[in-house]
Amino acid sequence: MFKKETIEKLASLADSLDEKGHTEEAGIVDNIIQEAAEGVAPFIYNDLKKMVEEGKSFEEVKKALEEKNESFTLKQEDYDEVKGKQEEE
To answer: How much of the chain, in percent, has pLDDT values that exceed 70?
Structure first.
């Protein structure tokens, strides 16, 4: 998962590479952006992280995030990833 600013910088890099004729490299950067987009959006990630830090269960977090962001569905693997990072700290 990347922060919004990082994704924007990567998109700018891909555009720059493409303009300079480095289409293969631009494609690689575009693939990285696409993979990052499949994760949790940065603005949702911050809420998810905060709720995990507060000790909320998967079901509590899922319900709260889905009520706040109607088009979002929390996956257990995303919750587990954030919880695992929290336990490492």
So the answer is: 83
